[in-house]
Amino acid sequence: MAWDFETDPAYQAKLDWADEFVRQEVEPLDLAFPHLQFVPLDGGRRKAIDPLKERVREQGLWATHLGPDLGGQGYGQLRLALLNEILGRSSWAPIVFGCQAPDTGNAEIIAHYGTPEQKERYLRPLLDGELFSCYSMTEPQAGADPTQFTTRARRDGDDWIIDGWKFFSSNASTAAFLIVMAVTNPDVSAYQGMSMFLVPADTPGIKIVRNVGLYGEPDNEGQHALIHYDGVRVPAGALLGGEGQAFVIAQTRLGGGRIHHAMRTIGLARKAIDMMCERALSRETAGSRLADKQFVQGYIADSYAQLQQFRLFVLYTAWEIDKYNDYKKVRKDIAAVKVVMPTVLHDIAWRAMQVHGALGVTNEMPFFGMVHGAAVMGLADGPTEVHKGTVAKQVLRDYRPTDDMWPTGWMPRLREQAQEKYAQFLEHEVGNQ
Ligand SMILES: Cc1cc2nc3c(=O)[nH]c(=O)nc-3n(C[C@H](O)[C@H](O)[C@H](O)COP(=O)(O)OP(=O)(O)OC[C@H]3O[C@@H](n4cnc5c(N)ncnc54)[C@H](O)[C@@H]3O)c2cc1C
Questions:
Q1: How many angstroms does the Cα of residue 119 sit away from the middle of ligand 1?
Q2: In angstroms, rounded to a whole number, what is the distance separating the alpha carbons of residues 94 and 83?
Q3: pTM of the predicted structure, to 2 decimals
Q4: Distance between CA atoms of 340 and 345, rounded to whole angstroms?
Q5: Which atom of ligand 1 lies closest to the CA of 171?
Q6: Predicted confidence (pLDDT) per residue in 254-308, tens digit
Q7: How confident is the model over 373-388, as pLDDT tens digits?
Q8: Which fold has domain 247-396?
């Protein structure tokens, strides 16, 4: 009987260390250096953050998503989930622990598909946390449906020339390189006709037209770039994986990224519950504490139950990834986790906000940011609706249609069969007595 919900004591000790470290040292970075996680370190920030990274390395918790060949511990996804739920409390924590999106996913695909030269040039510094990367896939006219992408890469001698537009390329303005998805053969299906390129950010022809911000951020100071690739020339060695492999590579990347977001969301939602409970116990109105009001008790109970269900689902999915070591096999559950994630965070953050009254909606508390973050989660890495479609298709694979006029579960026939089966034990009753 291998089901086990306990963490081994040695790793639990590391988690306890991480929990204390994140609360004491890392969460304050969110307030001291807000929104600067993806700006390369210099000056005071480097002095503050490098020693923290060093302490993480000393604990063997740096980049734990990686195998030992890439400088990680090879802990696997389940252990990463337990760590990530701690890191989810702070925007800076993934940077300090060397496991921030989108760089984790980008590192993963370079590790998987990159040539030795590409690994040396991009992967090493990425894993050392010394540079940032950008994943440039979505286009202004098409996001959820990559078959509609039009950004084109054409051969010119040994080089490729990339032309087109990309939208929502996160961190493009601070990234050292971009991973660009482009059509290399328009004559075959998009699934075989697109390729990925590793493009240094200073390559001539990359024009960041706008840095789009999320709601509430100042104009043109956001992190999500609209980019015009205008005759961007790269050598043959910039191709990542084989020609036509972009879809396969994208699936590898996004599978991992989605589950990592979910792991961190557990931590963020738990933080909202912590704050809701403290407030409920501390605030009195109409003759009793908020904690004594049944509506508020309902908020707390619903939030606890919702988070527990979500957490177990995420941990189970992480366990499946470790077991099968094949994202395709776990696709259904990764997509289902992605579907549930925005609702869990939204509902819990919303209740916590409500329990805080007017203070809850101010910029002095984090709840509105969480609610907004939940909305973003329903889009980034693919809209909820698309993932629901994936889940449904995968679920339906396990079923077959019936050609009978009545469904298999039609009860009159089942009853007849059941009565036949147990005829010898059934008493024959007559009339109404
Ligand atoms: C904060 C953030 C960061 C991002 N970072 C990156 C990044 O770094 N790199 C990158 O390439 N992209 C990034 N994206 C883009 C993201 O991947 C796209 O937003 C997403 O794929 C959806 O594409 P779209 O916005 O064009 O919406 P559309 O494709 O236009 O879809 C709009 C809506 O239509 C509905 N819809 C679409 N398809 C279906 C369907 N099949 N069935 C039912 N309904 C459907 C859904 O309601 C969907 O929300 C980011 C997005 C956000 C919000």
A1: 29
A2: 10
A3: 0.93
A4: 9
A5: 8
A6: 667 788 899 999 999 999 999 999 999 999 999 999 999 999 999 999 999 999 9
A7: 999 999 998 999 999 9
A8: Butyryl-CoA Dehydrogenase, subunit A; domain 3 (1.20.140)
